Amino acid sequence: MPIKTHACITVACDVCKYKFDEDEYTAHFADLDDARKALTGTGWTITADRKIFCASDDQEHQAALDAFMPPEPVMQAPGQLGFDGTEAT
């Protein structure tokens, strides 16, 4: 039996480096599409720029996810006073 080299893909969280696993073994995928499909519905997040975050719900993971969110819009109509007492322009 010959020894062959095979390329595969594993997935790890960009924050904590936890590897995506199935029943206590690291899952290996043939291509990126297979990896994305496996992560769907597991609570893991893949961002548009290929960052991957596991489903951990701690401050470090939340801070990483919050960094991808746009800033909250400022809702102040012209002539309305802001909380600091200044008028909107």
Kindly state the number of beta strands: 4
What's the number of domains? Answer: 1
Low-confidence stretches: none
Helix content: 10-25%
The helix count comes to 2
Distance between the ends: 77 Å
Please tell me how large the radius of gyration is. Answer: 21 Å
Structural class: alpha+beta
Strand order in the sheet with the most strands: 1-2
Main sheet makeup: 2 strands, antiparallel
* Average pLDDT number: 83
| β-sheet strand percentage | 5-15%
Shape assignment: elongated
- Topology as a string of helices (H) and strands (E): EEHEEH
Protein name: Ferredoxin
Organism: Streptomyces violaceus
Features:
single chain, 89 residues, alpha+beta, two-stranded antiparallel ribbon, two-stranded antiparallel sheet, 2 helices, 4 strands, 18% helix, 9% strand, elongated
